[in-house]
Write a structure and sequence with these properties.
Largest sheet of chain B: none
Number of domains of chain A: 1
CATH topology of chain A: MetI-like fold
Distance between the termini of chain B: 31 Å
CATH superfamily of chain A: MetI-like
Helix content of chain A: over 70%
Strand content of chain B: under 5%
Number of strands of chain A: 0
CATH class of chain A: Mainly Alpha
Structural class of chain A: mainly alpha
Oligomer: heterodimer
Order of helices and strands of chain B: HHHHHHHHHHHHH
Structural class of chain B: mainly alpha
């Protein structure tokens, strides 16, 4: 157990890095995912097609492949992404936005058809229907799945460990290699830090979901 | 495509829509075009960047390259997935049954195991195998995949069991079946049928996660791409990556489509067979399959969500 207490500063730095990645990438993914979802239900066909393509491709691509693309392939196109932290934020945000889009879209679909029909019947436009009637109702049923998407994001930040970002998992790897005798204890420490994020967030999703169900 | 969100367009709206579509397409095309021209200027589309796929340099044959990518690379990816998937399914099923045990004390370990492994990154589990237990890369990859996915699958199956009408269990007990018999003969067969789409979707996640082997040093598809690029020169990254990404997309989209189709069939069957009683309380407007899928998709999938939820949590 000494390994844990001795290396607490390292753990803390890694944990902060994981948190920063999660928060920044999460915020970007929420915004971009919302835009994508709006595109996917919009009346304009090219927007729909482009957004659908983006979402389908990213959803069916492993996150590792997204990182691989940005780190090794993009430079061949003459785009030199800043290595490390910001690359990780961009990759995580792009990947997560596809799932945010799907969560929001299914939320929009979950609002009763009658609501949209009624809004249209009193003459609201597409923007008004979506903005004043459908989205406010959709938000409620979207929040729990969105929390789950963000939990997945928090776990996915670990992939950045393979691409020159020293967050929790990379810290764990380094410490485990430095303390071969105690590697299991070291990794258990890393696991605890992840659980500190994911388990409360999961509970929160559960609570919110029960609220929503009762509100219906 | 019609939507409830906006009216079927009239002539004026259709004209506007046409203009919007044309302008939008043009903007997209220009953006893509600029990218393509920029890339072309840097020689990305030159034959010398792509000839690795038919006549690679350094006295290697195209067959060598393709063998290293498809047979060894994809082969290794699939090997990890094919070993891990059945293990995860069986263990997940056992965990789910264990979790529904009647005594609180009996089911606590299962709950702990599920919650623990669901909340940890797959990569960390792989490092547990690699560094913690000192295993070789393949075992570590399989360990990570199995441990994580069994927890998710256990949740999917549990949700499937929970979505069954209570009458099924009661009837099974009433005719004198034991708990094991009721599960084996009555409950699991029904639950598994509604859960198939979510399970297939989870297998896509499992396959995607096998690419994490790249990070723990397992020679899978991505590693094969990198090895080739390092051998033949970095300029070949684009060509090699295109092949690798194409392979992943084809395999995963095919599996996703299968999941969607299974779900559609499920929905048809349950509405057709008058499965109204199967709708659990609190979701009266949702069809049985949807409700089950929604529960399965994790806490909080919404009705009509399409095999999304469990994929969201990789």
């Amino acid at each position: 157990m000494d390994v844990l207490t001795d290396n607490l500063p390292a753990y803390w730095t890694g944990f902060r890095m994981t948190l920063e990645l999660t928060v920044l990438a999460g915020a970007a993914a929420l915004l971009w995912g919302l835009v994508l979802a709006a595109c996917r239900v919009s009346p304009l066909r090219p927007l729909r097609v482009a957004a659908t393509l983006f979402v389908e491709v990213l959803r069916n691509t492993p996150l590792t492949l997204v990182f691989f693309f940005t780190v090794f392939v993009l430079p061949r196109f003459g785009v030199l992404p800043p290595l490390g932290f910001w690359t990780a934020v961009i990759c995580l945000a792009a990947y997560t936005s596809a799932f945010v889009c799907e969560a929001v879209r299914s939320g929009i679909n979950s609002v009763g058809v009658g609501q949209a029909e009624a809004a249209r019947a009193i003459g609201l436009t597409f923007g008004q229907t979506l903005g004043s009637v459908v989205l406010p109702q959709a938000v409620r049923s979207v929040v729990p799945p969105l929390i789950n998407v963000l939990i997945a994001l928090a776990k996915n930040t670990s992939v950045a460990a393979g691409f020159a970002v020293v967050e929790l998992t990379a810290t764990g790897r380094r410490l485990a290699l430095a303390n071969p005798g105690n590697s299991i204890a070291v990794l258990v420490g890393v696991a605890i830090f992840y659980l500190v994020i994911t388990i409360p967030a999961g509970q929160l999703a559960g609570v919110v979901e029960r609220r929503v169900v009762f509100a219906r | 495509m019609t939507s409830v969100l906006y009216d079927a367009p009239g002539p004026a709206a259709r004209r506007r829509e046409l203009i919007g579509s044309v302008v939008g397409s043009l903007v997209l095309l220009v953006v893509v075009g600029v990218g393509v021209v920029y890339a072309a200027q840097r020689g990305v589309f030159g034959a010398d960047r792509w000839d690795i796929l038919w006549s690679p340099p350094k006295n290697q044959s195209a067959a060598d390259v393709w063998t290293s990518l498809v047979v060894r690379g994809l082969g290794a990816t699939l090997r990890a997935a094919v070993v891990a998937a059945p293990l995860a399914l069986v263990l997940g099923l056992l965990l789910a049954v264990w979790r529904t045990a009647s005594s609180r004390w009996a089911r606590t370990p299962a709950v702990v195991v599920i919650e623990l492994f669901r909340g940890l990154p797959v990569l960390l589990m792989m490092f547990f195998g690699l560094l913690g237990f000192g295993w070789e890369a393949l075992s570590a990859v399989i360990f990570g995949l199995v441990v994580y996915n069994m927890a998710i699958i256990a949740e999917i199956v549990r949700a499937g069991l929970a979505a069954l009408p209570k009458g099924q269990t009661e009837a099974a007990y009433a005719v004198g079946l034991t708990r094991g018999q009721a599960l084996r003969l009555i409950l699991l067969p029904q639950a598994l049928r509604t859960m198939t789409p979510s399970l297939v979707a989870q297998l896509v996640v499992l396959l995607k996660d096998s690419s994490l082997g790249f990070i723990v040093g397992y020679p899978e598809l991505l590693k094969a791409i990198q090895n080739n690029a390092q051998f033949f020169g970095n300029n070949y990254y684009v060509a090699l990556f295109t092949v690798g990404a194409g392979i992943y997309l084809v395999v995963n989209i095919t599996l996703s489509r299968v999941a969607l189709r299974l779900q559609a069939r499920q929905a048809r069957r349950s509405t057709g067979a008058g499965a109204a009683p199967a709708v659990p309380a609190g979701s009266s407007t949702v069809s049985a399959a949807d409700a089950a899928a929604a529960v399965a998709a994790g806490k909080g999938a919404t009705p009509r969500s399409r095999s999304r939820g469990s994929r969201g949590r990789r």
